Every structure is written in structure tokens, then in C-alpha cells.
């Protein structure tokens, strides 16, 4: 919902409050209630007069975020399914580990990019989320999961392509980062893209050290095009040029997510092609074993096959990590909870 209270920067809230005939300092109180005390309704703000709360609730409402389902995995991962004001559904995943707690948030309802391995693309694109609907996912998780550990990292890896909703996502990043709001360091915020070159170039100019993660998933254009139709518009050469420029400008290591599909993406040829694309600059490759999505016939490689592929990449001089799958028992892969209901 555009214009909701969680969509507004502090200065914008001040002007909205002044337009309601109230003093600007109220904006500071409201920010404290939302971002420090995690209030999720005007009713909770007990230090504000009741009449003012009622007025502001009408003028500047909270975004609607209704918990429809929550599943808790054996490993502590919690996956929320939320309903929005117009009935759209989005997912948010809380992933606690010993040292950190990461929250994976959605930026759109549905997605237009149709990556073949992803459940989120199946139903097509519905709409962009407002900044407030993005922020509300963080607020909710901080409220509900606080006993499991403070949210330390945010990844835009839920439903949607963040660069397709650039302005609202960047406003959310600034609120996540702002000292008067959540105060999460930019280096702890990751934007994950399917490879929207214009978005990468634009974000390089933001002056923020946001982590960039790119869904690569294939080592040549022909194969990537099959898995990710977006590759037609933004082929690998253009994508790599934009990513290198991002690394140079921000001095941040770019992460390439790479799904391992048996006999498709973890072959010797793929290792050589990856070396050609990624060797010698500030980047790393994160291997993810394919998490089967009902509709598709791809297979997951064995642990041995994955280990061998990882060794091969490391011998070729690539920094390589292998992500342990989280929340497999609760369908934590992109879009899977929504589609299983
Ligand atoms: S992987 Fe991301 S960009 Fe691709 S279809 Fe899924 S949500 Fe959309």
C-alpha cells in the first residue's frame, strides 16, 4: 500500500504529520515506536494521545500483513506465508545460525522472470510491494523471532526480482540501514538479482556498500537462456561487465549463486567456463544443490558429485562455498510454501 507509515523516511513522515496539523517531533516518537519498540499498529503507541493515534491511523495506515501460515523446520528455520491487503501472498524466511540470523524477504508478489527452477515464477507476476510491505516483513520477524536471535542480516531473495521494483526496494534498504530506523549495516544487506544489468549499474551509484548476489546458475549463454529466460535480454558478457564494475566501484565481493543440477550444470565443461567468467576478480561462487520443485524434472547431484565439482573449481582458482540446504522439510526454497497451499 503506497504511502503507508512503514514506507516513509523520517523526513517524509515529518511532512505527513505536519500536514495533519501536528508538530514534527511526533515523527521521532513514531519512528522510535516502530523501529526500536517494534510497534505494528497505532494502538500500541501508548505515549501518543489516543485522538492523535486514531487520526494518524486513518491518514497514514500501517501496511496490511496477515500471517496465513508459519512452518518451523527441525533446523530452526521459520517460513512465514503472509497475505497482503489485496489478497496477494508473499513469503519470508527466518534462518537462525549460531552466529547470525538472516531474514530472507520478498520484494514483489509473484515474479515475471520465470526461471525454470523456481516455484515463484510459476504463477506469474502480480505486483510490486510497497516499501512498507517490505519493511513490515522485517518488523514481523523481529517481533516473532526475537527469542531465536536478533535479525542481523537481510537478503532480498524471497519472491520477486528486487531490481524490478527498484525505487521501493532502495527506500527499504535506506530504512533498514538508517540510524533512526533499523540500523543494519549495508554490508549485511544483500540484494539478489536474476541478472538485471541496469539495476546493478544503478545500484553501483547509490554510494552504499550493499552486497550483490547474482543468480548465475549456468556457465554459458545457451544453457543459461534455457534455465533463465532473462538471459536473452541481459547475456553473460553484459552481466559480467556490470558485476565487475560493481565490485570495482564498491570494493565488495560479488557472489554468484549457482544451482547444481545433475548432468546439467556440474560438468567439467561448466567448470572451465566458470573459470573463464569468474577468475581474477573480486567474486565468489556459492554452490546450491538443486531443491526439486514438483513441476520440473531436474535431479539433484549426489554429495560426492558436488564435492568433486567444488574441488575442481577451487583448483581452478575460484573462491567457492557450498551452502547447506536449510528448511528442506518445510519447503523453504523460493516460492514453495505458497505453491504447496
Ligand atoms: S529465481 Fe527470482 S527472478 Fe527467477 S523466477 Fe524466481 S523469484 Fe523470479
Molecular structure report:
The chain has eleven helices and twelve strands. The chain is elongated and about 70 Å long. The protein is an alpha/beta fold. The two termini are 25 Å apart. The strands form two sheets. The chain has a ten-stranded mixed beta sheet with strand order 1-2-3-4-7-8-9-10-11-12. A two-stranded antiparallel sheet has the order 5-6. Residues 335-341 have low confidence and may be disordered. Helices cover 35% and strands 18% of the residues. The chain has two domains: 5-59, DNA polymerase, domain 1, CATH 1.10.150.530; 66-340, TIM Barrel (Alpha-Beta Barrel), CATH 3.20.20.70.
- Which residues sit in consecutive blocks of at least 5 with pLDDT less than 50? 335-341
CATH class of the largest domain: Alpha Beta
Record the strand order, biggest sheet. 1-2-3-4-7-8-9-10-11-12
Strand content: 15-25%
Principal-axis shape equals elongated
What is the total number of structural domains? 2
**Quaternary form:** single chain
CATH topology of the largest domain: TIM Barrel
List the helices and strands and how they pair.
Elements: H1 10-19, H2 25-36, H3 50-59, E1 66-72, E2 78-83, E3 89-96, E4 101-104, E5 108-110, E6 125-128, H4 131-145, E7 153-156, H5 166-177, E8 189-193, H6 197-204, E9 211-215, H7 221-227, H8 236-250, E10 254-260, H9 268-278, E11 283-289, H10 303-315, E12 320-322, H11 336-340
Parallel strand pairs: 4-7, 7-8, 8-9, 9-10, 10-11, 11-12
Antiparallel strand pairs: 1-2, 2-3, 3-4, 5-6
This protein binds iron/sulfur cluster.
Amino acid at each position: 500500500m503506497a504511502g503507508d507509515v512503514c514506507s516513509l523516511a523520517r523526513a517524509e513522515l515529518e511532512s505527513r504529520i505536519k500536514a495533519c496539523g501536528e508538530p514534527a517531533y511526533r515523527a521521532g516518537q513514531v519512528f522510535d515506536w516502530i523501529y526500536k519498540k517494534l510497534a505494528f499498529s497505532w494502538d500500541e503507541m501508548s505515549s501518543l494521545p489516543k485522538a492523535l493515534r486514531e487520526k494518524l491511523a486513518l491518514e497514514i495506515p500501517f501496511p496490511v500483513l496477515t500471517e496465513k501460515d508459519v512452518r518451523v523446520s527441525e533446523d530452526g528455520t521459520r517460513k512465514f506465508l503472509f497475505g497482503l491487503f489485496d489478497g496477494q501472498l508473499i513469503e519470508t524466511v527466518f534462518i537462525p545460525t549460531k552466529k547470525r540470523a538472516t531474514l530472507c524477504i520478498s520484494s514483489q508478489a509473484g515474479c515475471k522472470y520465470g526461471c525454470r527452477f523456481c516455484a515463484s515464477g510459476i504463477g506469474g507476476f502480480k505486483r510490486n510491494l510497497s516499501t512498507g510491505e517490505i519493511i513490515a516483513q522485517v518488523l514481523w520477524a523481529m517481533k516473532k523471532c526475537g527469542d531465536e536471535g536478533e535479525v542481523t542480516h537481510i537478503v532480498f531473495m524471497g519472491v520477486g526480482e528486487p531490481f524490478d521494483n527498484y525505487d521501493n526496494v532502495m527506500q527499504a534498504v535506506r530504512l533498514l540501514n538508517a540510524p533512526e530506523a533499523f540500523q543494519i549495516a549495508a554490508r549485511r544487506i544483500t540484494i539478489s538479482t536474476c541478472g538485471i544489468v541496469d539495476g546493478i549499474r544503478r545500484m553501483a551509484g547509490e554510494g552504499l556498500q550493499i552486497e550483490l548476489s547474482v543468480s548465475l546458475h549456468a556457465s554459458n549463454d545457451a544453457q543459461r537462456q534455457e534455465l533463465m529466460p532473462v538471459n536473452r535480454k541481459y547475456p553473460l558478457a553484459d552481466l559480467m561487465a556490470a558485476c565487475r564494475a560493481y565490485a570495482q566501484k564498491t570494493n565488495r565481493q560479488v557472489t554468484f549463486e549457482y544451482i547444481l543440477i545433475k548432468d546439467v550444470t556440474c560438468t567439467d565443461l561448466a567448470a572451465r567456463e566458470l573459470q573463464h567468467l569468474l577468475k581474477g576478480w573480486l567474486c565468489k561462487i556459492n554452490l546450491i544443490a538443486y531443491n526439486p520443485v514438483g513441476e520440473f524434472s531436474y535431479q539433484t547431484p549426489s554429495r560426492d558429485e558436488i564435492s568433486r565439482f567444488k574441488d575442481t573449481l577451487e583448483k581452478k582458482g575460484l573462491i567457492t562455498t557450498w551452502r547447506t540446504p536449510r528448511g528442506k522439510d518445510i519447503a523453504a526454497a523460493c516460492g514453495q510454501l505458497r505453491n504447496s497451499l
